Amino acid sequence: MSIPARAGYDGEMTTPEPADPPERAATFRCSEAARERADPFVATAPPARCWLLVEHPGPWGHQALGDAGYPDEVLDAIDAFCRARGARFQLIRRSRARGEAAADRGRFALVDTTPGAESVRWGRVGSPAELPAALADLEAVTTPSTEPVYLVCAHGRHDACCAMRGRPVAAALAMEYPERTWETTHTGGDRFAANVVLLPHGLVLGRVPATEAVEVVRRYAAGEVDTTWVRGRTFLSPPAQAAQHHARLAYDEHHVDALRVLGVEVREPGLTEVRLDGGADRGPLTVVVRERWVASPTPLTCSAGRAASMRVYDLESLTDSSGVSDGLPGVGALGAVAGG
Are residues 173 and 95 in the same domain? Predict the structure, then answer.
């Protein structure tokens, strides 16, 4: 059977440009090209309220779910579950650096990224054939965990950059946090490799260097987020991701739970107003962002074969409860930074 892309949220926030397939060298790497173009990556986190993680030692095919080798009834059950829960499906496995032999120990997890209600529940099945029954009665077959989960995209069959840049990051994290760290399949944004997902908050990071990875997750475990690497939070829509990031930069706000989204209103096509909780000191904040598309001269993935356009969110205004918007640090410089 064929699994629609939405079940695994394999879509990119990009649009292809009509063009003849260019003849490119076999060594073209989308992550290197994105760095050369200085592609912005804010507001590019894939949409997902929940994450369904299923252990699979590999080898992984191009599509995480469709190529997992599961029977049709298992594929149907996972697809239906993900659609009903707004979940993103991911295969996971231990990093080879950990020294754990490749094996399917039947572990699976459901992570809820709802702000204020984040949770992780782990379970185990004897074989993939048992997954449908487990998904139908999650409360009974899973146990809650307070440990965070660190996913690193290392899906080389989907895009070579994910393996080349992701595996060193996974190895570095696995050496320090072996129980929390997993390699995973495509998380979106191949050109932003190495991509790291911090759960249960659903924070997606891009271009994380292996030399910085341990410090990045240490800050997260302490309740802080480093805005240098943040692509967005998967629970939020792209305009809300952009608005929250603009506010973080403007107020130098690093607490992971800060600037909760209170509401989103589309004023007109491409122009969105996002209301944020600025806390006791700042009160409600109103952030207005405008969507635009930027053409790329080269493909956005290693296998795309043609150029495309990427979506960018410019900051129109940021106003606090007193109506003040001028003079906020960094606001005027963000227009060319946020995008995906």
Answer: yes
The answer to whether the CB of 258 falls within 8 A of the CB of 279 is: yes
Buried b (16+ CB within 10 A) or exposed e, 272-298: bbbbbebeeebeebbbbbbbeeeebeb
pTM of the predicted structure, to 2 decimals:
0.86
Segments forming the whole domain that contains residue 301: 237-333
Residues 183 and 240: their CA atoms lie apart, in Å, by: 28
pLDDT tens-digit series, residues 116-156: 999 999 999 999 999 999 999 999 999 999 999 999 998 87
DSSP code, position 338: B
Q: Is 330 exposed, middle or buried (0-12, 13-18, 19+ CB in 10 A)?
A: middle
Domain count, the chain: 2
What letter does residue 98 receive in the DSSP assignment?
A: G
Does some domain include residue 145? yes
> Residue 316's Cα: distance from chain center in Å?
25
Q: Which of 183, 173, 166 is nearest to 58 (CA)?
A: 183
Residue 90, pLDDT above cutoff 80: yes
The count of C-alpha atoms lying within 13 angstroms of the C-alpha of 169, restricted to the half-sphere facing its C-beta, is: 30
Residue 234: pLDDT band with limits 50, 70, 90: very high
CA angle 282, 246, 33 (to 5 degrees): 165
Nearest to 161 by CA among 190, 133, 199: 190
β-sheet with 308-319: strand ranges across:
14-16, 308-319, 284-295, 271-277, 261-268
Label the pairing between strands 50-55 and 87-93.
Answer: parallel
Q: Are 300 and 15 in contact (CB under 8 A)?
A: no
